[in-house]
C-alpha cells in the first residue's frame, strides 16, 4: 500500500455525489438491486484462491502479514456491462467452519448465501475512494475502456458463528446508468 493511499476507510462516504451515494448507502443485497434493474444479471468470477489479503484488511480480519486467506473476486454484470467489482476475504482457518460453502459458490452470487441465512449479520460499512495506489483499484479497472481517476468502494463484515467474511464492493462507472 503506497503512502498516497492511507489505510483508512470512513464511516460515511464524505463528498460522494447523490447518485453514487444511493448505491453506497443501500444495505439490501446489491445482487437484488442490480437484478431489479437489468434484464440479465450475472456474476463473472475472475479469481478465487488462497492469497494474501490487502494490507488494509489485515487488522479487520485478524490476519498476519503473509497469512493466506481465501480471496474471491468477481465482476457483477448488468447485461453486457460490468457494474461492480467485488473482493471478498475469509481466513483460511474458517473455510472448514462457517464459510465452508464459499469454495463451491462458482458463478452464483455471494449475496444468495449472505442474504438467505438469518444467522448471518452484517456490520457497519466503511467507505473509501480508491485510486491508482490501492491494489483493488487496478483490478477493478481491468475491464474499463477509460479508467477514471478514482472509484468509490464500500466494505463490510458479515459474521456467522463468530467468523467473518470481509466483502468489498467497488462501484464501476456504469452503475450510475441504472435507474434508482
Ligand atoms: C454481498 C452481495 O454479494 C455480491 C456478490 C459477490 C460475489 O458473488 O462474490 C460479492 C459481493 C456482492 O457484490 C450482495 O449481493 O449484496
TrEMBL record:
The keyword Lyase applies. It catalyses: chorismate = 4-hydroxybenzoate + pyruvate. The keyword Lyase applies. It is found in: Cytoplasm. GO terms for biological process: pyruvate biosynthetic process; ubiquinone biosynthetic process. Keywords: Cytoplasm, Lyase, Pyruvate, Ubiquinone biosynthesis. Its EC number is 4.1.3.40. GO terms for molecular function: chorismate lyase activity. Pfam families: Chor_lyase. Substrate binds at residues 72, 110, 169. It comes from the Bacteria. Belongs to the UbiC family. Removes the pyruvyl group from chorismate, with concomitant aromatization of the ring, to provide 4-hydroxybenzoate (4HB) for the ubiquinone pathway. This is Probable chorismate pyruvate-lyase. It comes from Nitrosomonas communis. The lineage of its organism: Bacteria, Pseudomonadati, Pseudomonadota, Betaproteobacteria, Nitrosomonadales. The gene is ubiC.
Amino acid at each position: 500500500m503506497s503512502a498516497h493511499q492511507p489505510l483508512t476507510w470512513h464511516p460515511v462516504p464524505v463528498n460522494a455525489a447523490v447518485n453514487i451515494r444511493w448505491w453506497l448507502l443501500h444495505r439490501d443485497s446489491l445482487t437484488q438491486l442490480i437484478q431489479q434493474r437489468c434484464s440479465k444479471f450475472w456474476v463473472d468470477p475472475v479469481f478465487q484462491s488462497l492469497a494474501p489479503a490487502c494490507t488494509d484488511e489485515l487488522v479487520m480480519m485478524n490476519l498476519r502479514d503473509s497469512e493466506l486467506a481465501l480471496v474471491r473476486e468477481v465482476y457483477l454484470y448488468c447485461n453486457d456491462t460490468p457494474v461492480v467489482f467485488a473482493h471478498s476475504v475469509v481466513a483460511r482457518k474458517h473455510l472448514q467452519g462457517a464459510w465452508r460453502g464459499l469454495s463451491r459458490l462458482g458463478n452464483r452470487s455471494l449475496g444468495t448465501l449472505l442474504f438467505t441465512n438469518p444467522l448471518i449479520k452484517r456490520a457497519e460499512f466503511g467507505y473509501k475512494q480508491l485510486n491508482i495506489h490501492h491494489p483493488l483499484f487496478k483490478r477493478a479497472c481491468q475491464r474499463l475502456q477509460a479508467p477514471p481517476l478514482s472509484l468509490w468502494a464500500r466494505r463490510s463484515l458479515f459474521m456467522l458463528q463468530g467468523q467473518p467474511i470481509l466483502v468489498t464492493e467497488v462501484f464501476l462507472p456504469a452503475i450510475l446508468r441504472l435507474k434508482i
